[in-house]
């Protein structure tokens, strides 16, 4: 089933970030995402340097996670944030709803899909390999294709077409987006009620006000992911 394969592959790609975060005494969706992307940045950089394929990126990423595990086991236990399980469960249901309103890839999604497909398919990767034009320069907004590399890795691990990942990865990332909002609310208020209010406000503005899932349906694209997951 595509949904389960996407979820498992996303978990595998994010697992090294969770291990590194735990090694620093951190727990949660926010530090996991941050450290996973930091590790991926380094792994992709080495891949581009040697002109290798995405297989090297995956090996390096998993090696980072394996190296962090011994430190993660000895790290102090971080504070447990109450209510995260309920928020995650709500995010899973929200993600399932997004699956049914995903529609089709269009607009900027086609541009991003092309970059993801090149990263997943080409053997000799470089920063210029994913350019739109054969003799063109680096894209000013996506000179280093970090998020595209993340999606390409998910496609590689899940054995799925990159088109399926670009279209439906939003359903997998939705629970993480809600957790990030909840953790931000918890860090500010230190109480579950106000933290849930932060999540509700975020979902209301982003998904319910525009209807049809709003920007959450494009959570797999870099601009939306950066606003909902990283900022």
List the helices and strands and how they pair.
Blueprint: H1 2-23, H2 29-50, H3 54-74, H4 84-100, H5 108-121, H6 146-158, H7 162-189, H8 192-208, H9 222-230
Helix pairs in contact: 1-2, 1-3, 1-6, 1-7, 2-3, 2-6, 3-6, 4-7, 5-6, 5-7, 6-7, 7-8
Written account of the structure:
The chain is mainly α and 231 residues long. The chain has one domain (2-126, 143-230). 71% of the residues lie in helices and 0% in strands. It has 9 helices and no strands. Helix 1 (2-23) packs across helix 7 and helix 4 (84-100) runs antiparallel to helix 7 (162-189). The longest helix is centred in the C-terminal third of the chain and has 28 residues, at 162-189.
Percent in strands: under 5%
What is the overall number of helices?
A: 9
Q: Main sheet?
A: none
Order of helices and strands: HHHHHHHHH
On the 0 to 100 scale, the average pLDDT is 89
Which residues form runs of ≥5 with pLDDT under 50?
none
Q: What class, by secondary structure content?
A: mainly alpha
Helix content: over 70%
